[in-house]
Amino acid sequence: MDFKMEYQKKLTTAEEAVKVIKSGDWVDYGWCCTHTRKLDQALAARYEELTDVKVRGGICLWVPEIFKVPNAKEHFCWNSWHMGGIERKAIQEGIAYYSPIRYSELPRYYRENIEPDDVAMFQVAPMDEHGYFNFGPNNTHMMAVCDTAKFIIVEVNENVPQCIGGEEEGIHISRVNLIVEGDNEPMAELGAAAATEVDKAVARLIVDEIPNGACLQLGIGGMPNAVGSLIAESDLKDLGVHTEMYVDAFVDIAKAGKITGSQKSILKGKQVYSFAAGTKKLYDYLNNNPECVSMPVNYTNDARQIALIDNFMSINNAVNVDLFGQVSSESAGVKHISGQGGQLDFVMGAYLSKGGKSFICCSSTFSTKDGQLKSRLVPTLTEGSIVTDTRSNIHYLVTEYGKVNLKGLSTWQRAEAIISVAHPEFRDELIKDADKMKIWRRSNK
């Protein structure tokens, strides 16, 4: 096959390409920073002639054009595998809905469980000399999307980095139906918020638990990034990376000479990830970097794979934790905030690892819009809150007031331990609540 000739045969405009989409279709936009852009604009322009087009995606880094059309919810329905701020707002407008997942299972959902996409369209890196379009920093579940979609359109962006993979990191031109050349916009960035003093206090407590040679997984958010920054400044050495999401903090740790992967039992010496989102620093670092290996999420997040790596350290955020040890990282009551993602996968996998530890971290309090101080550690989760990690799964809980290992503790021991890391202002009330719930035995004062 002459790949260049095939490319020209399949090359078309975005306006022509989206004509294949009909009312009622399922359409896939890909994932995160490689959601389609030009094709999205062309699809939005057709809104008056379309109804009930159901779109799949996740972690929007910009507002899709289909969200902006008049009476958008009558024309398009966004179904998100993982939500950020843009999608949270779209929920309130009736445009978006969350699709609950355990992230490690997502490729199987496509291959076995859900209605196949009528059309899949997403950004890719330019075609290489072998006829492949790289998925860029979003390997995740994209091959499963392509394996099951009835029609595939790729949107080429010269700024999408070539992310070297172990498997399933790109699609061959022979499997692509149409090609659209995008406007080559810079990669959308997802910068971490500056670490607060609380973030730094939590980070110090976690870093003390990390041995030389440990393998790291960092979740999204300020606290995991604060941990990463502290690791970069520490004396730790020979660290490894096996993570769902690759974030800027890993670049800092690697450039500080802390990452060698020499102690890893699988893919030794390699930094393994499923998708990445961050600043230009991160995208430049991943581009054609043989040290970094892009893998599908059913590999990176498989608890059985994680368990094979000794001293695995998993670090993730929570919204609330109750006195039973139930962790909610997805909602505050029925108010949707995020998604499960791979948190439970890594909580389970890290604990199965020899010497492994999983850390659920959060600030002890937060402030409401009117300035009221509220505790994140609560008697019971607010009605409607989603349990991300059951009480039997949580290992270490960390706030700025300390860290506690909850494995193997009875209900009264758990309550006592959790209250010990709550903000002092709320401890007496939490003790009273625990007593009412018959999970308090004695005062820890």
Describe the overall structure:
The chain has 2 domains: 3-181, Glutaconate Coenzyme A-transferase, CATH 3.40.1080.10; 197-436, Glutaconate Coenzyme A-transferase, CATH 3.40.1080. The protein is 28% helix and 21% strand. The strands form 7 sheets. Strands 1-10-8-6-2-3-4-5 form an 8-stranded parallel sheet. Strands 16-14-12-11-17-22-26-27 form an 8-stranded mixed sheet, sandwiched between helices. Strands 19-18-25 form a 3-stranded mixed sheet, with no helix packed on it. Strand 4 (76-80), helix 5 (85-92) and strand 5 (96-98) form a beta-alpha-beta unit. 53% of the residues are buried.
Attribute tags:
single chain; 445 residues; alpha/beta; Glutaconate Coenzyme A-transferase; 2 domains; eight-stranded parallel β-sheet; 16 helices; globular; ActCoA_hydro_N; lipid metabolism; fatty acid metabolism; transferase
Secondary-structure map:
Blueprint: H1 3-10, E1 11-12, H2 14-17, E2 26-28, H3 38-45, E3 53-57, H4 72-75, E4 76-80, H5 85-92, E5 96-98, H6 106-113, E6 119-124, E7 132-134, H7 142-148, E8 152-156, E9 170-172, E10 178-181, H8 197-207, E11 215-218, H9 222-233, E12 240-242, E13 245-246, H10 248-255, E14 271-273, E15 275-276, H11 280-286, E16 292-294, H12 297-300, H13 303-306, E17 312-317, E18 320-322, E19 327-328, E20 331-332, E21 335-336, H14 343-352, E22 357-361, E23 365-367, E24 373-375, E25 377-378, E26 396-399, E27 402-405, H15 411-420, H16 424-436
Parallel strand pairs: 1-10, 2-3, 2-6, 3-4, 4-5, 6-8, 8-10, 11-12, 11-17, 12-14, 13-15, 14-16, 17-22, 18-25, 22-26
Antiparallel strand pairs: 7-9, 18-19, 20-21, 23-24, 26-27
Helix pairs in contact: 6-7, 8-9, 9-10, 15-16
EC number: 2.8.3.-
GO biological process, one term: butyrate biosynthetic process
Domain Acetyl-CoA hydrolase/transferase C-terminal: 278-434
